[in-house]
Amino acid sequence: MKTYKIAVAGGGSTYSPGIAKALMLKKDEFPVSEIRLYDINEERQRKVALITEKVVAEFDPNVKITSSTNPKTAFEDVDFIFAQLRVGGNAMREKDEKIPFSHGIVGQETCGPGGMAYGMRTIAPMIELCDFASKYAPQAWIINYSNPAAIVAEAIRKERPNARILNICDMPIGMMLRMAEILGADKDEIEVDYFGLNHFGWFTDVYVKGESRMNELREYMSENGLVTPEQSKDLQHSDVDWIKAHKNVANMLKLFPEYIPSSYLQYYLIPQTVVEQTNPEYTRANRVMDNREKNLFDSIDHLEETGEFKEGFKVGVHGTFIVDVAMSIAFDRRERFLLIVENNGAIPNLPSDAMVEIPAYVTSRGPEPIRLEPIGLFYKGLIEQQLASEKLLVEAALEGSYQKALQAFALNKTFPSAEVAKTVLDDLIEENKEFWPVLN
Ligand SMILES: NC(=O)c1ccc[n+]([C@@H]2O[C@H](COP(=O)([O-])OP(=O)(O)OC[C@H]3O[C@@H](n4cnc5c(N)ncnc54)[C@H](O)[C@@H]3O)[C@@H](O)[C@H]2O)c1
Ligand SMILES: O=P(O)(O)OC[C@H]1O[C@H](O[C@H]2[C@H](O)[C@@H](O)[C@@H](O)O[C@@H]2CO)[C@H](O)[C@@H](O)[C@@H]1O
Ligand SMILES: [Mn+2]
Question: Which ligand 2 atom is at minimum distance from the Cα of 169?
Fold first, then answer.
């Protein structure tokens, strides 16, 4: 049986040990001989490699774990590259969130000005990663989690149209897990219809064993959002920030009951509510640094000091989803997932060159998206505005255009006016000098 070599770009990520464990949990079906961690931060990666080795050795001591800052060593002849770069780290995430909040605007990792700032930092490194892949592992598929996934996907579509890359997000699958719990169903029994852009989409129907349960879900979620009946269950992201986001789904459903919105639509549909609910001095980046990141690195320090292994991380849907997608490619399983793909007529009344998030069957040749019905004018209007904002942002980064960056910001629904958009853009330029292309 073939064994697989997997590279993890952004190997020092808080998610690397969980992804390695998710691979090991499937090792009988999907045998892995090597996991290679690649990062630009050697020390962070060294530490994460220590715990990753421990995790893997508990399942199979023969799996080789290597870490390198050299792309040739990391990527040569691998079968898959799992990408999870956070360009600028959490220090820059904190600025992405706090600068907009200081002007009363939503500050968020992937949405609005924070997401656009993160996008400006991430486009060039992701293009570079595609080039490493085509040089050292031309047969490999990159399965990309690196955010902001919508902006990354558009930039790669434009600049490297032949790259073997699948852009994915764990938000839909995370929401589906919650829906299963609300409906008392098994997670594998759930199937959904969905359309949109990444972090900007709607579930149009939800089935359990082929039967629509949309009415029941709508009724429950209009009151409770995504807060499940048993919060005690250890679902990932049950912390205070996500509980607020999950409750805000109810507020959006009360306004627009037709479809179930992605929780991320709160940043565009009810931005003032989000601003009022957030402490601008202690944002999501602070919570992540004080919890997910700290817990992982504390457990690594403990391991280094005592030799004792405490997990300090979770596999969650994040780990299992990327492994399931890889297995569907590796074994031509034709499994259905929600993925970010080029529209190409799948949503007939959206542009062909939009990177949309829709159901697709994943084969060894890549994704086969399904064809949908035309979408309603309300959704089309919202999506086209957001799409134009994302496309202009990518053009701004590639052309070094200040004017296009300002247009991207001004078009984004998180801003009340072009004047505020300019103020926030100028602050972000100042703080991102080390990372952004120069804008003239
Ligand atoms: N698409 C999704 O649904 C989804 C879900 C969860 C996380 N994510 C994304 O996964 C990524 C990792 O998140 P995290 O919280 O673990 O971040 P993290 O900061 O813990 O890890 C990211 C790693 O990327 C490395 N890195 C930065 N630039 C790099 C480059 N040019 N080349 C190689 N490595 C580089 C950093 O040094 C760091 O070790 C982020 O982009 C996050 O937004 C996406
Ligand atoms: O604020 P963070 O860093 O904790 O998380 C940001 C990521 O959140 C989303 O993923 C969630 C998902 O929505 C949730 O249901 C659960 O499964 O956990 C996921 C993270 O592991 C989002 O999709 C990502 O793009 C964000 O990076
Ligand atoms: Mn996501």
Answer: 23
